[in-house]
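Example record

The entry below shows one chain as it appears in the dataset: sequence first, then structure tokens.
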Amino acid sequence: MTAIQQYRVNLDDRSYDIHIEQGCLNQIGKALTDLFGQANRCLIISNDVVAPLYIETVQQSLEAAGWTVSKHIVPDGEKFKTIATWSDILDSLMDNKLARNEPIVALGGGVVGDMAGFAASAYRRGIPFVQVPTTVLAQVDSSVGGKTAVSHPHGKNMIGAFYQPRLVWIDPDVLQTLAPNQLRAGLAEVIKYGAIWDAEFFAYVREHSKQLHELDIEVISRVIIESCRYKAEIVMKDETEQGARALLNLGHTFGHAIESMTHYTEYLHGEAVAIGMRMAARLSEQLGYAPKGTEEAMVQALKALELPVDVPQFTAEQWLDVMGHDKKNVGSLIRYILLRDIGDAFIAEDVKDEDIQTLIQSFA
């Protein structure tokens, strides 16, 4: 049993705790009672993969603490992260007549958390929500920081809001039922933190890849704790991504383009980000920002985590067209997160289309 770890995300009246504890899923009822006081109704939003595994545990814990529980189940997968699915969640909120102080409980991965949070931000102009992440990706990244959204045919996560949860409740034990490809995809976000600003953490993740794949509780707990700490620290500095928070998008501009061009059917989010980080590393070398060997270090780390590194074949024009719609752009300018070295990332706003054409051609 790992020790309880708790971090406070300090954002004035939007502050909240990240609670990390092995086996804590069945304690969530008391946690919500302590947090919300008089409220006694909630809506659990989950998907059709996670719900059969964990919704009963969560519901029983809540009901034992005096909560009246309603449930809404969405289909699993990025392709269902749409306005239509989000609208169905709003219909469920309307049908259950949740009041402004009654929370949504988001039980699932990043898609569930993003859509539930966005619904919470819009319903009655904002009701509370709680993140109960069940994937590596959600536990180390998407559940923290308040980015909520749905996707649009023009790009991923184009419609959404910054809306912080009231609590993030993380139980590493739920990862035991995670599909191997989902586990690997989540580890892409872990290696990202090391690539951005901690070369030692980057090395630790690579060196402990076997233990991570085996879900060694001590190693996976340390990785979750450290990743949440990195994410929380940067969110506290830049909540709405006006500056430093953009560094967390390493690999994402290319990754989102890959997801869009393959219609969200060939790659999990983390897999696309992994390829995107390889591309960012090569671009960093190509432009003379990073020393030779940076891309190779990235590739070897990604391969150790059994993540894909081969770049799908699309034309440079296709890449540029899709990336032009990416939400990380400023006006018509595409921002790229590049590396000076492993552990030292920066925001580049002077990358030319010709540079991207050269990059894409180099992978042909």
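Notes for this example: Residues 180-362 form a domain with the Dehydroquinate synthase-like, alpha domain fold (CATH 1.20.1090.10). The chain has 14 helices and eleven strands.
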